[in-house]
Amino acid sequence: MRILAVLHPSARRVLENALTGDLRLTKAADPESVAAMLRDHACDALVFDPGLLGAEDFETVMSAVNESGVPMLIYTALGPLAARRIVEAVAHTAREMVLRGSDDMPELLRQKLTALVAPSAPAMLLSAVASHFRVFPEQLQTVSVGLFARATLPRWVRGIVKETGLPRRTVDRWMDRGGIFGASRLLDVVRFARVWEPLVENGMSPERVIKYCGYPRLRLFSAHSRRLTEVAPLELRDAYTRATFTAKLAQALLK
């Protein structure tokens, strides 16, 4: 796989150290060269920090990504600017994310790169709901986007609220403006999106899944499954595909 990287030098070094086998980096000098390589299909994937470029160069690269259909991994230290651009980048197409300096272990980077041809359930869910984050103030937008890439989620909604620095009522008012059923529902839906791959596609037991996804007990996991998808966890495989599963979760999240 030929990977084009538009990253800070330090992030590029981390990525280089994670590559094995047929994964190799391809160089480009500037945003115009990146766009040309994407349109010419001179690479198989793009690893991109959306906060690295100026507004015009960001639009140049994203236009080429969308035109070419080359899969993209967003690799960034999440902040307000990066979050705003991620919302734009994923609004129509699912993109995988890795948080720089936080969850960028080599094995995770390799896993994300090799899976780019089939976006994960959380990536597909973010693509379906990202446009609703556009109305949020920057700190709430940053925290909301970050939920889809973090390795560990807050156990309770007060953790999200604390990170925004906003009162709980203010957070939920903004969620309402964005057409979302509140911060608590957002956390529940993002957490449940993570169960698809380990439970359905990898056959992990429910007891292991709840530890992997951060559920305190099996009963709560089962209750979330029935509330959000109308079936028990072990019935998900027969009831849904990955696409219909994420569509169902988006329906449960949005007003």
What does this structure look like?
The N and C termini lie far apart (40 Å). Helix 1 crosses helix 5 and helix 4 crosses helix 7. The radius of gyration is 18 Å and the shape is globular. It folds into two domains: 1-119, Response regulator (Rossmann fold), CATH 3.40.50.2300; 120-255, Orthogonal Bundle (Arc Repressor Mutant, subunit A). By secondary structure, the chain is an alpha/beta fold. The mean pLDDT is 94. Helix content is 56%, strand content 8%. The chain has a five-stranded parallel beta sheet with strand order 2-1-3-4-5, with helices on one face.
Give the key terms.
single chain; 255 residues; alpha/beta; Rossmann fold; Arc Repressor Mutant, subunit A; 2 domains; five-stranded parallel β-sheet; 15 helices; globular
CATH class of the largest domain: Mainly Alpha
Helix count from the secondary structure assignment: 15
Class inferred from helices and paired strands? alpha/beta
> Major beta sheet, specifics?
5 strands, parallel
Stated plainly, the CATH topology of the largest domain is called Arc Repressor Mutant, subunit A
Shape: globular
Total individual domains: 2
Distance between the termini: 40 Å
Estimate the helix proportion, in percent: 55-70%
Whole-number average pLDDT? 94
* Low-pLDDT residue intervals, each spanning 5 or more residues: none
Judging by the overall fold, what is the CATH architecture of the largest domain? Orthogonal Bundle
Order of helices and strands: EHEHEHEHEHHHHHHHHHHH
Strand order of the largest sheet: 2-1-3-4-5
Strand content: 5-15%
Count all strands and give the number. Answer: 5
Radius of gyration: 18 Å
